[in-house]
Amino acid sequence: MANRESLDIFGASSMGYAVIESNHLESWRSLFQDGIGLHLACDDEQAVAFRMDSHQRRIIVQRGRQEDFIAVGWQLRDQETLTEVLLRLKRLGIQAENSDPSEAAQRGVKEFWRIVGPKGMAVELFWEPLITDEPLTMLNAGFITGIAGMGHLAITSRKPQQMRRFWQEIFDARDSDHIVERIAGLTLDIDFLRVNERHHSIAIARLRDLPMDPVRTRIQHMNLLTISAGALTDAFLRCRKLGFEMAHEIGEHPNDREQSFYVMTPCGFEVELGWNALVVDEAQWQTTSYQGISLWGHRPEKTGTWRKLTTNLGNFGRGVRSLLKPEYSPL
């Protein structure tokens, strides 16, 4: 048996659930149930929750004022992996707090351990999800989950190196590739990290030579994968018919070859729904750098001059305001 110092947990973790706080529960229900096409698992005055597979909960939107993505549930393979992660956290001086039963039940897990991660986002560690065999009732034909998890997060940061350390030193994340994107005269560097066969579970974006963060929320987007081009197109048409703004219409990324669209959420971050993302073969994979985030498509729905001006001014204003407060990093 490998000793603890050399234990590699690559492939033993994945994104397990998402927790969002918002006072716009009705809009969230419309987006996820009627637009993206998830199964509505809970609907009351304080929260709405959704399924996409046998897990009792995958996305929870709880009532509150933050209007933000507040926690990601990070699933570990087994108790041994959890023990290893907790030991790493202790060595790094990061405190982990055990959940109470009501919190765990809300998230659809037996228990979890919470740490405060980069940008103040809670990372909730668990290994025993609550499973149900209740049939799914949803508009989408299905989602890709399994050992690679439910999706990925993209996060903007003024401390990208510390954020990379967090995912690499705690979860043995590996570099998948890098993209350089030019937006409104600025250069954006994006690093893609994987913790399993999914091309990336975390993407970290930073403005080159500018210590600003133009995104108000803790994440820039959350990604889910559906099972076919037809399911993707149907969800795109449903979201647009419901009146949700398309941040980026259907297009294809050069690195993971995923075809996807991005829809604006009631909190202001985006949800990306995609399909056909490649699965990494560790024996063959080589890290590559790309110019441009899209091979084709991914055009914004609103492209007028006034829209571009107000968007750029808004991003610049948020970037300037970000200079007035420190970005939290646990490392």
Describe the structure.
With 331 residues, the chain is of the alpha+beta class. Helix content is 23%, strand content 31%. It has six helices and 18 strands. The chain has helices at residues 25-36, 79-92, 101-107, 160-171, 229-241, 305-322; strands at residues 13-21, 39-43, 47-51, 59-62, 68-76, 97-98, 113-116, 122-126, 152-156, 174-183, 186-194, 202-207, 221-225, 246-252, 259-264, 270-275, 288-291, 296-297. A hairpin with a 5-residue loop joins β15 (259-264) and β16 (270-275). α1 (25-36) packs antiparallel against α5 (229-241). It starts with 12 loop residues before the first strand and ends in a 9-residue tail after the last helix.
SSE diagram, text form:
Layout: E1 13-21, H1 25-36, E2 39-43, E3 47-51, E4 59-62, E5 68-76, H2 79-92, E6 97-98, H3 101-107, E7 113-116, E8 122-126, E9 152-156, H4 160-171, E10 174-183, E11 186-194, E12 202-207, E13 221-225, H5 229-241, E14 246-252, E15 259-264, E16 270-275, E17 288-291, E18 296-297, H6 305-322
Parallel strand pairs: 1-4, 5-8, 9-12, 10-17, 13-16
Antiparallel strand pairs: 1-5, 2-3, 3-4, 6-7, 7-8, 9-13, 10-11, 11-12, 14-15, 14-18, 15-16
